[in-house]
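Posting this for the archive.
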Amino acid sequence: MGMTVHNHSGRVVEIFSRERDTDEAQMAQFREDLKGAVAAATRGGRRMVVVADLRAITVVGPTMANFYIEVMRKDNKDLERSAVLTSSAANATFVMQMERVMRESANPNRRRFETDTALTAWLAEILDDAEMTRIREFLAENAPK
């Protein structure tokens, strides 16, 4: 599957996707995986921090865009920050799509970045060393080859 979600460290939820569009079965599986990751990240009343690596995507279909909005809105109450990494080579359509998704998610603590340096600097303001180490590993694992 081209969409994954994990909680490997503290309150960080890691999302990776290379899907331009997807089907109902994949979306259902992602929702289940997300539910588990959010439960782990918010254990004990913590607020989660989401890092989404979407560098492998250049454009999304309307089904996928609406799916992202649905997922983001649902988790607003448990969210401290959400950082979405897109490719600087992404086309203008995808950038506009992601800006719309972020806007319609109705949470000002969501930001889109084009470099992992800017993304990690923003998250380092609130995360501990172990969480930041894991975020750097996650981004390196998914870096474009």
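The two ends are 19 Å apart (CA to CA). The chain has one domain: 3-141.
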